[in-house]
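Handoff note, outgoing to incoming analyst
You'll be picking up this chain. Sequence as last confirmed:
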Amino acid sequence: MAHASPRTERIPRLSRLSWLMGLYAENYRHLVRLFAPAELVAGSYISSVGDGLDVRLDVIECHRYTVELRLTYDLADPVTGEPDPSAYVRLYRDARQAETTHCYS
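Most recent structure output, in case you need it:
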C-alpha cells in the first residue's frame, strides 16, 4: 500500500509591516465602499437608517493626497461631551490606504 504524502501549500509569511499595509488597504476599501470620503468636502455627514445609531463622518481636512476624517456614532460622552466612540482616520488617496491615527472611547 502506497502512502500519500500530505500536500502542503506554500503560503508566504507576511512581515508585520506587510500585514499592517494590507490592513490599511482593507480599511480604505471599506471606507470608500461605504462613504466615498475622497469625494467629500470638509464638513459633517450623517448616515441614518432609523435604528437610533446614526453614523457620523466628519471630514476635517482635505489635501491633495490625504483626507483627515473622524468616524463616530452620533452619541456624546455624558462627561466630556465628545462623540463617543470615535476614530480619527487618515485616508491616503494615492496609496489607497486608510490609517486609524487614534481613537476615543
